[in-house]
Amino acid sequence: MWVWQLVLAVGFGIGSAVVPVMNAEAYVLAVGATHTLNPVVAAIGVTVGQTIGKVAMFLAVRYRPNYAARKTKEPKPVNLDTRWGRFVQWNRDLSKRLLDAMSDSRWGIPVTLLSAFVGIPPLYGVAIIGGASRMKTVVFTLSVLLGRGARFILLVVGVSLF
Questions:
Q1: Which of 147, 120, 144, 119 is nearest to 130 (CA)?
Q2: What is the pLDDT of residues 90-115, one digit of tens each?
Q3: What's the angle, vertex CA 82, arms to CA 76 and CA 88, rounded to 5?
Q4: Do residues 102 and 133 make contact, with C-beta atoms less than 8 angstroms apart?
Q5: Can you tell me the distance from the alpha carbon of 71 to that of 8, in angstroms, rounded to the nearest whole number?
Q6: Is the pLDDT of residue 67 over 80?
Q7: Alpha carbon 139 to chain centroid, angstroms
Q8: Using an 8 Å Cβ cutoff, are 143 and 116 in contact?
Q9: Of 144, 95, 87, nearest in space to 118 by CA
Q10: Are the beta carbons of 148 and 51 closer than 8 angstroms?
Q11: CA-CA distance, 46 to 13, in Å (whole number)?
């Protein structure tokens, strides 16, 4: 019986990782409060599903078509005399700093762990930025699995105690 519960939870986890309106936390809390499914099995399944979904997003960004050719292309120059030009340049600088930070293990791992456990910054964005950075896939996967696992287990155990 627990195998079907696990499959259901993994499926919901994959869906909630890709579709932002599907809330994995609400699913885990509802399972923990109602005890319709085994709460720990549901938390583990959602953790695995979320990790699969986020790694799929990570890899989709990393291996998107024409990505290698796009890296060598120089950005168009902007007119820094206009407000729009300054905004575009600020956005480029910020994006470069984020990619550099996610590529560095001193920042990439803690940011991914924090995002997976707390939700700030959103893991959806971290998965996309991580895929564009030089972060290793294994490091990203383990960080998401550990952070999400701790989050969902704590949620389900906390709710199921009442």
A1: 144
A2: 998 988 888 888 888 889 999 999 99
A3: 45
A4: yes
A5: 40
A6: no
A7: 13
A8: yes
A9: 144
A10: yes
A11: 4
